[in-house]
Structure formats: C-alpha cells, structure tokens
UniProtKB/TrEMBL annotation:
Alphabetically ordered keywords of this record: GTP-binding, Nucleotide-binding
Molecular function (Gene Ontology), one example: GTP binding
Organism annotation: Dulcicalothrix desertica PCC 7102
PROSITE patterns: RAB, RAS
The protein, known as: GTP-binding protein
Domain of life: Bacteria
Amino acid sequence: MLQKKVCMVGSFATGKTSLIARFVHSIFSEKYQTTVGVKIDKKTVNYNDKELNLILWDLYGEDEFQKVRMSYLRGSSAYLLVVDGTRRSTLEKAFNLQVKVEETIGKVPFILVMNKSDLSDEWEIDIDEINDLTQRGWNIVKTSAKTGRGVEEVFQTITKKMLEG
C-alpha cells in the first residue's frame, strides 16, 4: 500500500490538531490542546480505486518557524498550510512558513486551509485577499473543524495532488 507523509503547518491555535481529529476520528473538542513537538496520526483513504495511507504530522504551532525542527518536514509528500480566518496575523505568518517549507523540502503540493469558517462573521481576512491568492495559483479550501465543513475535501484534494502530480 502506498504511504504519503503530509505535514500540518501553521501558527498556534489555527486548528491543525482539530482538523486531524475531525478527519481521522470524526470528533471535535472545544478544549484547546497545545501540540508539543509533533503528533502523528494515520488514515487510509481511497482515491481512484487505490488505497493510500496518509501519515499526518501535526507540527506544533510556532510563530517563529526557526523553532520548528526542519527535520519534521523531511520526507513530506505534501503539506497543509493552516490559517485561522479570524486572525489576519496567521495568514501573514503562513506566507513566511510557505517560503521556509519550500526552502527546506522543495516544491511539493500544498493547500492553504482557511479554517474556522463557522466563525465567518468574525473573519479578518477578506474575500479579495483570498481571490488574489487564487489568482496566483494557490489552492484554497475553507474549512471548519467544528462543523466538519470542507475537512474531507481538503484531504481528498491533497491526496489527488500527490497522486496526480
């Protein structure tokens, strides 16, 4: 069976751990849990009659990327850049993270995950910014770990990008 490593990257409290919990275990908890180091989960997905083992690396959220061990990224086939729509600063940090990840592991598929879509009335990131990124060729998916919106889509889309190149 094929195995692919996918890293979850983003500032602290953007919902990386909650997105994985929703995807892998179909659960959501309001209780905030800080990831210490890295947490690894696994889920088997089917794509075009192929089974693929996704190895999901939930990297602790740091706003200074230098503190994240670059070694955690090695061997990644893709990554999810997770942003909290209610905090503009997480998008700005994501731009820096994207550059650092690319410097470390090269160009691999990634998706900008705009999390917390259930709080859209509190968003600090406007549609024009999202459209600009789409124009630049970025793949963007709005999600809510709380409601489950877009979560399956993100992982199906990154799986497709890894397998089809």
